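Newbie here. two chains, one complex. Structure please?
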Amino acid sequence: MDRIPILKLGNALLVTVQVDMHDRLAKALEEDLTRKIIEANAQGVLIDISGLDIVDSFMGRMLDTIAAVARMLGAETVVVGMRPPVAITLVELGLTLASVKTALNVERGMAIIGMKVEQFRDADDRDLG
Amino acid sequence: MTSGETVPIRISDDVVRVRSRVRALAMSLGLGIVDQTKIVTAASELARNTLDYGGGGEARLDIVEAGIRRGLRVTFEDRGPGIADIELALTDGYTSGGGLGLGLSGAKRLSNEFEITSIPGQGTRVIITRWK
C-alpha cells in the first residue's frame, strides 16, 4: 500500500503530499503521523501541499482531522505551499480551513512552529522562575 | 455540442480519473488556471457525491458552444436514492452523510451554470458548465 513519507525537520515533522489523499492513504497518514509525533517528540507538523493542483472538501476535511489529532498530541499543524488558484477556489467553495494554520512555504511554517516552541519555553522558565 | 466522453464512477480511484479528464479538457479549451481549478474542484465534489450518495454512476464530459463562446459541461448521473429536498441539499453545511455539506452548494458556486434534477427512488443528475 502507498504511504506518504514523513521526514523529521528540527523539532517538526514534514509531510509532503503529492498524490491524491484518498481514504486509505489519509488513514495511513494519520496513524503514521501520530506514531512519529510521539517517537520524535515533535512539536509541529508541516503539511506541504504545493504538489496538489486542487483541494476539494474531502481533502480539506482530511487536513482538518489530521490537524485536530496532532493538536491532541501537543503538535501544531501548519499547512504550507498552497497554490494561489487552490486558495481562490477553496474560499469560493466555502472551505476556509479555519482550524488549520497556513503559511506560504516551509520556511514560514517552521517559523510559526518555532514561535510556539519559544512561547512554551518562556512559560516554562517563568514557572520554574 | 461535440459529443464527449463518459467516465464511469464506481470506486474512489474513478474520482481521480474524472478530475484528470476534466483538467485535460479544460486545458485544451484554453481555460485559465483559476477557472481550470474551479471546474476540476467542482467536478471532484460532484463525482464524490455520485459515488458516496448515489452508489456510483457516471460523468459525461462535453465541449459546448453558444455563439462564439465555448465551454466545458460535465454531467453526473446516478441511479441512487435521489434527493427529496433539493433546496435543503443545496444549503451550506447540510449533509445526509459524513461530509462537510459543501459539495453541492460549493460546486454550484464554482460553476457558471448549474442544474440539478433528482427523482427520489430513481436517481440524480447534476450538470455544471464553465464558459471560457
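Moderator note: Helices of chain A lie at 23-40, 57-72, 84-93, 106-128. Chain A has one domain: 6-128. Thread marked as resolved.
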